[in-house]
Amino acid sequence: MLLATLVLVAFSIDNQVVRWEGLVLFALLMAYNFWVMRTGRLTSEVDLNTTLPRFTEVLRSVVILVVSLAALIIGADILIDGAVTIARGWGIEERVIAVTIIAFGTSAPELATSLLALRNNESGLGIGNLIGSNIFNILGILGVTSLITDVRVSSELFDFDFYWLMLIPLLA
Known about the structure:
Layout: H1 2-12, E1 16-17, H2 19-43, H3 55-89, H4 94-119, H5 123-148, E2 151-152, H6 161-171
Antiparallel strand pairs: 1-2
Helix pairs in contact: 1-6, 2-5, 3-4, 4-5
């Protein structure tokens, strides 16, 4: 996560992330995913002799997945729209809305997953979920977006936000 953050800061110094930088970010995401899958295969113990789940179990899992995804999308949309409407009504700046309410709304699923993991004494899963989400947002979302169009980075971010962006990975 620290490497992704440092690359982002380096690419943002000129106040934009251009297409070739987006390609580098996306390539780093692919390399990271390859590394995670490769090291995961080396350390996981999978019993290939187990029986396959029955069709009804698979169907039930797919239905739960689809319903959960729909509820997540609808719930996140309601949360963000409501919070933005309230914030605008209070006269809060768009930048403050973006870095607080929108960030919380888009991070709510990761937060919920991490809290459930912690409740079930799976702290590694919770921490990995947060770190993986941040890596994906920097390398994947910003990488693909900047492949499509250059992304402008406000110079105001260097006054405050990037210091936090670089401090947080050091805490993890």
